[in-house]
Fold this sequence. Notes:
Blueprint: E1 14-15, E2 18-21, E3 41-44, H1 51-63, H2 91-103
Antiparallel strand pairs: 1-2, 2-3
Amino acid sequence: MPAAGTTGGEVPTTAATGGVTTKTQGMEDKKGKKSIVHQINITGSVPVENWAELFRCFIGPAARMQLKKLDLNVQFRMEPRADTPLSPDDQALKAMREAAKQLGLKFETNE
């Protein structure tokens, strides 16, 4: 939807688990001034089977935009099933802990 007082505009898309927030780019208001995007924030939850879409739709295009700043953040919350508990010595957890260390990420477990 266009912002109040503008002609044309983009329709932000939203999903039940997230949304896209932008300001309209390159549209003229009634006084003929062009609007520009100052910041883009995209938040929400994405099912694991759709994570490749994040790279195709957002990360790749953003990397080609010659932006002043591109901050990418991750948050993983994993809860084992009651019938398959995880040991702190689990090899997959050890590998994740080491990968997080190498990438400069914080890795925490609640035992």
